[in-house]
User: Fold SDR family NAD(P)-dependent oxidoreductase from Leptospira soteropolitanensis.
Amino acid sequence: MKNALVVGATSDIGTHIGESLAKRGFSLSLTGRNKQQLAELKSKFQIKYPIAVETFEWDVTDFSLHQKFYQELPTKPDIVFFVVGYYEDQTKAREDQIELLKTIQVNYSAVVSLMNIISLDMEKRNEGTIVAISSVAGDRGRQMNYIYGSAKAGLTTYLSGLRSLLFSKGVQITTIQLGPVYTKMSEGHNLIPWLTLQPQVAAELIVKAGLSKKDLVYIRWPWRFIMMVIRMIPEWIFKRLPPF
Assistant:
């Protein structure tokens, strides 16, 4: 039985990724900040599916725990899904240094720190898959979300370099360029219904991309072309556009 580690398993998308993997017979290692939610997920998955489930309550931004957590995992994962993300309010992040740093740490620094540890182990084993959720917001800096977008842009670049480095080692790195999804994180934001996915739909597409060992996938195909057009707008025009 293969093992999947889901970092951020209590998030709206993470819970559905866990279920999608459980259906496929993966044993699960689930991390999250909410002890009760983790316990509920463990009970639910073990009742519905004949799999082993381990849970780990901790905050991914606690960098001091990264090495210890991975070293003490009873089963090293065959595939890892990074489903952590944080985006509240651009104005608040500009004016509040704590909010600014949290946005950067959750979306970039913490992911890279833990991924570096895991990827080194997979490189030694010459096998493994890492799937990380980035965002179309990182394709170009826009007024409404450039702090969050810059963190995701950094993550996308990191994943690209890591993918090239580990290709010859038998380790697959999959980048998920995600657009809007109906989750707690997106509440209060103006979403376009035909471009916005339900979390269970997004989760299934993410799992399929990871298991198919794709390199870079836009979950909701129109975003590939939308962002291509946005990237092509000359800067002298782009900076004059209203917020979008």
Remarks:
- The CA atoms of residues 199 and 232 lie 30 Å apart.
